[in-house]
Amino acid sequence: MNIKIIGVGKLKEKYFKAGIAEYAKRLGRYCKFEIVEVPDEKAPESLSQAEMDEVMAKEGERILDKIKDREYVYALAIKGKERSSEEFAKEINKLTTYGHSDITFVIGGSLGLSPAVLKRADAQISFGRFTLPHQLMRLVLSEQIYRAFTIINGLPYHK
Ligand SMILES: C[S@@+](CC[C@H](N)C(=O)[O-])C[C@H]1O[C@@H](n2cnc3c(N)ncnc32)[C@H](O)[C@@H]1O
Question: What are the residues facing 7 on neighbouring strands?
């Protein structure tokens, strides 16, 4: 099974990289895990709404270029649906049981995801109403995907 996270911009901070590398290593037992980075657009503070929409649209096109038709896509969105870790694990298990072997998660850039990306998504996941930095979101999501596999496989990691 293939799990892909698409993120906007390069991850620079060593501590995020180290955390993600740890979960990527652990996930190697359960799936082919990859993180795909697409270039971000400059988004200075002074942008108008139209300019912000353009930034999201451009980043969105780059994200959509990395998604194939067969992929089941989760968009990470603050206003999406919240789940518990157990519910998420059940959902992943069900998707694989019903033949989805390519699952892709999309995290927006500093301004968020474009309407086109949200439209392509098969489901939206919210990690609550807090706004998390997109780099940190990659780490938190990697951990939750790992947690889901430990739940599916009955390992004692999840309490
Ligand atoms: C800095 S946030 C963008 C904030 C933007 N105002 C928005 O509402 O999307 C960057 C990305 O991280 C992800 N993200 C941040 N907090 C999240 C949360 N609580 N739940 C789900 N995704 C989140 C989303 O993919 C978002 O597009």
Answer: 37
* 150 burial level (CB within 10 Å; 0-12, 13-18, 19+): middle
Judge whether 121 lies within some domain.
yes
Span 66-111, pLDDT tens digits = 999 999 999 999 999 999 999 999 999 999 998 899 999 999 999 9
Shortest-distance Cα residue to atom 9 of ligand 1: 112
pLDDT digits (tens, 9 = 90+) for 98-107: 889 999 999 9
What's the CATH code of the domain at 124? 3.40.1280.10
Residue ranges of the binding site: 76, 108
In a domain, 157, yes or no: no
134 lines ligand 1 (CB under 6 A): yes
